[in-house]
Description:
Layout lengths: L1 E6 L7 H9 L4 E8 L6 E9 L2 H11 L3 E2 L2 E2 L1 E4 L33
Antiparallel strand pairs: 1-3, 1-6, 2-3, 4-5
Amino acid sequence: MKNIYVGNLDFNVSEDELRQAFAAYGQVDNVTILKDRDTGQPRGFGFVEMANDEEAEKAINGMNGAQLGSRALNVNEARPKVNKGSGGFGGGRSGGRQGGRGGGGFRNRY
């Protein structure tokens, strides 16, 4: 299974149109065009999954730079998603100390 990144997508291209374009190179298992979570508008990129690696490579080579809608596509093998840390409170710092200045507000009491 190969996951293919498709960038510079025309905002008017549908998932069905993207599927049809890639289906010329082989079986397409899944197509997803990412949308803004607040507005629901397309973000200009998506992913195509193809089961056969050889067909996927042909699709990448054939579709990269190809015109779909009003734009030339940027197509390559998708990179795995990178975990950017815990993302929780504290910004990666442990405990309640900030910048190595332990003690906080107690310093001025004595």
